[in-house]
Each structure stands twice: as structure tokens, then as C-alpha cells.
Amino acid sequence: MTEPTANMTVDGDRLWDSLMEMARIGPGVAGGNNRQTVTDEDGEGRALFQRWCEAAGCSMGLDQMGNMFARREGSDPEALPVYVGSHLDTQPTGGKYDGVLGVLGGLEILRTLNDLDIRTRHPIVVTNWTNEEGTRFAPAMLASGVFAGVHAQDWAYDREDHDGKKFGDELARIGWKGEEEVGARKMHAFFELHIEQGPILEAEGKDIGVVTHGQGLSWTQVTVTGKESHTGSTPMPMRKNAGLGMARILDKVDEIAWSHKPDAVGAAGHIEVFPNSRNVIPGKAVFTVDFRSPELAVIEDMEARLRKEAQAICDEMGLEVAFEKVGGFDPVTFDEGCVTAVRAAAERLGYSHRDIISGAGHDACWINRVAPTAMVMCPCVDGLSHNEAEEISKAWAKAGADVLLHAVVETARIEG
Ligand code: HGY
Ligand code: MN
Ligand code: MN
């Protein structure tokens, strides 16, 4: 058995060209992408990925949640495969690299092993997880969550988007609902390459983030109910303004997050008022509060204070308030052995690196429950993500894929 050699590196130009070609599917309006889950554009991106994988000699598996599994055979077909991947779906105003770098970085590993005519003992499987973003159908990481046994499949199928369409129906409509049982696959290990989506690596001049942990996430959907009435003729003391109630609650959300500085964060990205008419006092406001922290106790404190403070605000204003937990996962500690393989790969390749906690959620956070898992991160410009201006350098993409290559191949064991 030989070790991965330091000069085994990916073809950075080929990886970049693939990223740019995928970015042409589901373009945004400002240079990024709008390739939301189980839309026709998602279907197109999947088809392109499948063509590339088959051209690289892989067989493609597809499960009942639309998760895709491109398998490169190993010398021991009985050995559990090493999985590597991320997601191809994007935010409505997403970037070209969030998720996509991890899927196409995995494909680049297979292409590189083909070029070098290297056979690993364990098969390698490149994965595209369905609906990581959770923007069209909450929660985030939906399909990897079903795979890890966190969500029931029928519950996932019934998730509805803003127009009342169901996830399962849309998955079938685009023709990507497979036969394979979700979660039946067993993994030797799972690795995910992802952009940092934060400013630390770039600010410190580091090429690689060795992800030791992922912070936990909590999504609480809040519904505030008041009374629609005329914005002109309703006296101020008589108003039951759900929009104002929401505004006061959102100010509290910010205060609660700051009270746990420096690590906790809190905001609402999803906000709706009804009827959303210029001269009607909002009778209803619906919004999702996103709290995150590396510490579970902090998340639980923020959730409890949100409910208490929001109730007090609404009682004082004569409004009704209801809460629904629509997403969340506890802080994650990744597998020591896999994390060490990532760190050793960065050192062998001479890339600067630092340990880091992931601020964003990833499919790896759920897969960590069913297989030894770790993540590799590369910097992104100004730490910006979930924005069409998301940008990385070709060198960062290559560094991340090189480290992923070595960590995956070392774990999959090169045959002598
Ligand atoms: O919300 C997240 O952290 C991920 O980008 N879906
Ligand atoms: Mn992502
Ligand atoms: Mn994302």
C-alpha cells in the first residue's frame, strides 16, 4: 500500500472550468446563481453532473430523496466506500461556489485518479445531497437529514414551498426521484469541501480550514397576529399592528444574540407581512428567527428568551403570537481520525491552515451521525456568501481540492 505522494494534485484549471460551466445553469441576476432545489434548473444541473460522472467512468445511484451517488470502483468491491460531496442547489441569490465546489471538487478527485491511473482499495462515491439550502423547502439539509435518520421521508415529501407545492411532488416532477432506499448505504467515511462563508481564513491569510466542529442552528418560525385596518383612519391607540410587533421582536433577537457575544449570532432572513398593502395595518407577520452558537446551552437560552420576550411584547400590544420550530441541529464535533487526515494532507501539501468551527450548516453535520466525517474549507472573498457576489480564487479552489484529494485517498488507501 503506497501513501498519497505530495506531488499528487488536482487539475485546478479543469476544476475551475467545471465550476464556471455549472454556474451557467440557473444564472442569477447579478453574476451568481438561482438554482433552487427541485426546480427545472436543479434538474439541468443534475443532468450535467451525471454526464460528467459517467464520462469519468462512474456508475450513478439515485435514492428516493434524489440524493445522487457517483461510484468509482475500488480494488475491493466489498470495502465500504469513502464518500465525498456537498450540494448543487443554491439560494435564490446564491453564489457559484457554495456547495458546488464540494460536489465538483469530489468529481475532480475521480478525474485526477483516472489521469494518474491510481486504484484505491475502497470505492469512492461522489455525492450531491438534495435541498441542502432549505430556502425553498425548510429545513436546510433536508435530504441528508432523511439519510441520517433525523427526518421521516414522508414528512420531508410533505414540506411545502411558498406556493404550496410539495417537495416530494416537485422532486418527482423534475424526474430525479430514485428507487433506492434512503440511508441504506453504509460509508467508510465522508468528506465535504466547502467555502468558509465567513472572513477568518482570508483575514489570516490561510489557504485551508481544518473544520473540527460545526456550530448548532435553531430556526423558529414566529407568527404575530393583530388586526388589519386602515393606515389613515385608524387612531394610533386602536391599532393592533402585527408589523410593529414583529419589528420590536426582531430588535430583541439582535439584543439576545449580542448578549452572548462573541460567538452567538441571530437574525431573521425570512420575513412576510400580510396583506402587505401600503395602506393597510399588517394584520399578520410571519418570520423565521435563525439563532446559532457553538454551544447548545446558548442556543437553548436564546430560544427560551425569544419566546418569553416575544410573548411579553405581544401581550403588551394586544397581539397574538405563535411559535413553530422549523429547523435545527445541535453543535457538531467531527471525527478525530478524519480531521487528522485533513490536517495531515494540508501539511503534506505545504498549504497554510488553521482549525476552524463552521459557522454555516452543512450536510456533513448530519452525515457525521452515521459515518466518520470531516470537512475541508477554503477562503472566500470578504467572507461573503449567500450573495451573488460570492467569489473565490482559482488557487483557493485548487488548494481545497488538493487537500480533499489527499484526505480521501489516504482514507480510501491506495493499492500498491
Ligand atoms: O443555513 C446554512 O447554514 C446553510 O447554508 N444551509
Ligand atoms: Mn452550502
Ligand atoms: Mn448555503
From TrEMBL:
The record's keywords, sorted A to Z, are: Hydrolase, Metal-binding, Zinc
Pfam families, per database record: M20_dimer, Peptidase_M20
Give the note describing cofactor binding and stoichiometry.
Binds 2 Zn(2+) ions per subunit.
- Whether Zinc counts among this entry's keywords is yes
Q: Which coenzymes or cofactors are required?
A: Zn(2+)
For the ligand (Zn(2+) 1), the binding residues are: H87, D98, H194
Keyword Cell cycle assigned to the entry: answer is: no
Gene Ontology MF terms: hydrolase activity, acting on carbon-nitrogen (but not peptide) bonds, in linear amidines; metal ion binding
Task: Using the record's annotation, list all stretches that form the Peptidase M20 dimerisation domain.
Answer: 215-314
Concerning InterPro entries, the annotation shows: Amidase_Cbmase, Bact_exopeptidase_dim_dom, Peptidase_M20, Peptidase_M20_dimer
**Homology family:** Belongs to the peptidase M20 family.
Q: Kindly give the NCBIfam families that the UniProt entry links to this protein.
A: hydantase, PRK09290.1-3, PRK12891.1
Name of this protein: N-carbamoyl-L-amino-acid hydrolase
> What is the phylogenetic placement of the source species in the record?
Bacteria, Pseudomonadati, Pseudomonadota, Alphaproteobacteria, Rhodobacterales
